[in-house]
Amino acid sequence: DTAVSQTPKYLVTQMGNDKSIKCEQNLGHDTMYWYKQDSKKFLKIMFSYNNKELIINETVPNRFSPKSPDKAHLNLHINSLELGDSAVYFCASSQDTHRAGALRGTQYFGPGTRLLVL
Amino acid sequence: QKEVEQDPGPLSVPEGAIVSLNCTYSNSAFQYFMWYRQYSRKGPELLMYTYSSGNKEDGRFTAQVDKSSKYISLFIRDSQPSDSATYLCAMKEASYDKVIFGPGTSLSVIP
């Protein structure tokens, strides 16, 4: 009964390769996110999708392309991987901010995908 | 000036101590304030959630928000070794999904 799940948990790959990370949530949430957490634990948003529509697109290299086949899934594809892409990538989801409720907008995180680019 | 600032620690306290964690911020439009706890090699999990100014208590945890000073705090009473984790403050504006996280404070509670 995992709420937000990600695959794979670990990813070790060579520079220049293309890789994908998958995320699924079973909370019925409308919004999903991708975050990058660097070695100093700083958590920074990359993208968010609401009902399959791109809402937030931070200054991220266009080698990173999110894809949302339905509102329960948000995948992250990375082309031409670079050493600096090594980090932990977290997927998260939240209820629609515009709905009523004290916890609207609160985000629930997946376990993370640890990416190491060699 | 960074949008959200937080002392990264590490902070080490004996079991049973009262812990005070703090964040300052610059954006006066922030309305929702959260504290997340992140255990090593795990995803962040929501600990406390507060709207606007005031205090909120949940068991051993108390969150305080002072919007006039742009300052939020998390207090942990009777700290336990299981509280050892990184604590991230987070905040957002009322009508915008983007949550801004602080860099986190690493806490160790020594038995």
Features:
heterodimer; A: 118 residues; mainly beta; 0% helix; B: mainly beta; six-stranded mixed β-sheet; five-stranded antiparallel β-sheet; 11 strands; globular
Q: What's the mean pLDDT score of chain B?
A: 92
Largest beta-sheet details of chain B: 6 strands, mixed
**First CA to last CA of chain B: what distance?**
37 Å
Q: What level of helicity do the residues of chain B show?
A: under 10%
Separate helix tally of chain B: 0
Secondary-structure element series of chain B:
EEEEEEEEEEE
- Name the chain pair whose interface involves the most residues: A-B, 28 and 25 residues
Cα Rg of chain B: 13 Å
User: How many DSSP helices of chain A?
Assistant: 0
Task: Give your account of this protein's structure.
The complex is a heterodimer of chains A (118) and B (111). In chain A, 0% of the residues lie in helices and 53% in strands. Chain A has 118 residues and is mostly beta strands. In chain A, strands 2, 4, 5, 6, 9, 10 and 11 form a seven-stranded mixed beta sheet that branches. Chain A has a four-stranded antiparallel beta sheet with strand order 1-3-8-7, with no helix packed on it. In chain A, strand 5 (43-50) and strand 6 form a beta hairpin. Chain B is mostly beta strands and 111 residues long. Chain B is globular.
Topology of this structure?
The complex is a heterodimer of chains A (118) and B (111).
Chain A: E1 4-7, E2 10-13, E3 19-25, E4 31-37, E5 43-50, E6 53-57, E7 64-70, E8 73-78, E9 87-94, E10 108-109, E11 113-117
Parallel strand pairs in A: 2-11
Antiparallel strand pairs in A: 1-3, 3-8, 4-5, 4-9, 5-6, 7-8, 9-10, 9-11
Chain B: E1 4-6, E2 11-14, E3 19-25, E4 30-38, E5 45-51, E6 54-58, E7 61-66, E8 71-76, E9 85-93, E10 99-101, E11 105-110
Parallel strand pairs in B: 2-11
Antiparallel strand pairs in B: 1-3, 3-8, 4-5, 4-9, 6-7, 7-8, 9-10, 9-11
